[in-house]
Design brief:
314 residues; elongated; single chain; 50% helix
Length: 314
């Protein structure tokens, strides 16, 4: 039986070594991100031997933490890596590089957020789209669509929006994050050729509503459950929505409103009548204080929307 390895990176004994997975958990980032930092910037285990599993010593972890601090201050990945590799000087003087553009470098306030959500926030603030995509892919693979949306993505989106409201900065962070999240959920959406529902489910924003991101995790989770959906996207005109209902005879329609001014009950009343019953669901913050007229039903979160639609159509 082999003994636990306690040889530290750099050749000293007595210091326990950590695996890639353990370091990733400690930092709240994806293991793939650690490997990328090692491959691109040389921020890997300093005592790694070919043919052996990668093990990080305390000094290796300290360098990675310095890189995170730099990213949080808005440095680019390359700037943060250079800072971390010059760790002797950095640890002595406590200097952390700041991006010349100042692009959202003060970080995000995310009390109570999970380590992965905080890591995603740091990557987004650093404009590191590769790290954002890797973390989202890992979360979707391990936790699934609903957990990724509720526990990882939403806290970061909320924090980014709060920062913009407070300081007027961070729009570029929001746009990058939105694009990465949309791409991740599209990739996580299986193609359902033969669904459990005989008639499709239509997913659309209310007329003039352009915030359609939450419809993508809904589509992804429904597809994983074998439900055929049709995505109609943002700011769908009323006449186009009516035409889609007439042409597809859907089993259900989900209408999203992010802002209250777009939560118009008149749109529900104007939906065309079809021979077969159509269940109508409305979701989004815009509907929370508005009037939801029959036959529509309000769904308050992703899990509730998935459960209601699945029950209605299958």
């Amino acid at each position: 039986m082999t003994q636990p390895e306690h040889r530290s990176a750099g050749g000293h004994t007595g210091e326990p070594l950590l695996s890639v997975a353990a370091v990733a958990r400690r930092l709240g980032i994806a293991p793939a991100t650690l490997r990328t930092w090692d491959r691109r910037y040389g921020l890997g285990p300093s005592g790694h031997t070919v043919g052996r599993h990668r093990k990080y010593g305390p000094r290796d972890v300290a360098r990675l933490e310095l890189m995170q601090r730099a990213l949080l201050r808005g440095a680019s990945s390359a700037e943060a890596a250079r800072f971390a590799l010059d760790s002797k000087s950095s640890m002595t003087h406590g200097e952390v590089p700041v991006s010349p553009s100042g692009g959202g470098g003060r970080g995000l306030k995310m009390p109570g957020a999970s380590p992965l959500a905080r890591g995603l926030g740091r990557a987004a603030v650093a404009m590191d789209s590769i790290a954002v995509q890797e973390m989202l892919a890992d979360s979707l693979a391990s936790g699934g669509v609903i957990a990724t949306w509720d526990d990882v993505v939403r806290p970061v989106l909320t924090a980014v929006a709060a920062k913009w409201q407070l300081s007027g900065t961070g729009v570029e962070v929001e746009h990058l994050l939105n694009e990465c999240v949309l791409a991740a959920f599209v990739r996580a959406t299986p193609l359902v050729t033969v669904g459990r529902n005989h008639r499709p489910v239509l997913l659309a924003c209310m007329p003039e509503e352009r915030h359609n991101l939450p419809l993508y995790p809904l589509a992804a989770e429904l597809a994983h459950r074998g439900v055929v959906v049709r995505q109609l996207g943002a700011a769908l005109p009323m006449d186009a929505l009516a035409a889609a209902v007439r042409r597809t005879a859907p089993s259900a329609v989900v209408l999203w409103a992010q802002l209250p001014r777009y939560a118009d009950p008149g749109v529900i009343a104007a939906l065309p009548r079809t021979r077969q019953q159509v269940r109508v669901f409305v979701g989004g913050p815009g509907w929370r204080r508005g009037v939801v007229t029959a036959p529509a039903e309000r769904v308050d979160d992703l899990a509730a929307a998935v459960g209601a639609v699945e029950a209605a159509v299958t």
